Amino acid sequence: MEKELEKAIGIRIRKIRMEKSLTLDDLANASGVSRAMISRIERGEASPTASLLARVCAALGLSLSSFFADDGKASPLSRRQEQQVWRDPETDYMRRSVSPPGTGSDVDIVDVEFPAGARVGFPPHAASSGMTQHIWLFHGELEMTTGETVHRLLPGDCLFMPVAEGHVFHNPGNTPARYCVVLDRRR
Asked: Rg for the chain (alpha carbons), in Å?
């Protein structure tokens, strides 16, 4: 299943890149990801980390949620067993796209399971300018760093932040953290 998703990720990146008439060099320059790495991902030979995939998606003008959205028929209902799940090969964090795909909504909801001790950084990126997100923690603990500010979240806490500024997710605890990201793509 993971190899199938790896190939599907590569195919989708290539399809979107081609639709936008971008060369590998164009996408590499816009994302800060090497041409060789993008090529390997497109061929299904490499699995991108969350940070790398977020940079490529931002350069393509997409959020991670919209990237993973199914191009199929829109439905107002998103059944759990049909929701797209992706696991970061570097940190083993798991993200589930909860929002029904294809509805045209500017809001995406993502359920995340974040391993103890894991850390993922998303660098600032102009392509995400105007997008915002709420991080709502259900279980465990989470440290969110934006710029010089570190926010420590405990169960029930919710943090609002712009996406474009860049941020770091860190689970300093001994147990997995589970949280929801509510992403607003309106600009």
From this structure: 16
Q: How many domains, the chain?
A: 2
38: its two tokens: 């993008």
Domain boundary among 51, 67, 83: 67
Q: Which of 13, 43, 67 is the last residue of a domain?
A: 67
Tell me: the pLDDT tens digits for 77-119?
989 998 888 899 889 999 998 988 778 888 889 999 999 999 9
144 and 119 co-located in one domain = yes
Which tokens hold the place of 46? 């490499």
Sheet holding 94-97, edge to edge: 85-87, 94-97, 107-114, 177-184, 132-139, 158-162
How many Å apart are CA 156 and CA 112, to the nearest integer? 15
Contacts from 145-151 at CB under 8 Å and sequence distance 24+? 145/170
Residue 101, phi then psi, degrees to nearest 5: -75, 155
Q: Name 105's bridge partners.
A: none
**Residue 15 belongs to domain spanning:** 2-67
User: In CATH, what number is assigned to the domain containing residue 95?
Assistant: 2.60.120.10
| pLDDT tens per residue, range 155-184 | 999 999 988 788 899 999 999 999 999 988
Please say whether the beta carbons of 117 and 177 come within 8 A.
Answer: no
- The answer to whether residues 88 and 148 belong to one domain is yes
Q: Quickly list H helices, 60-167.
A: 64-68
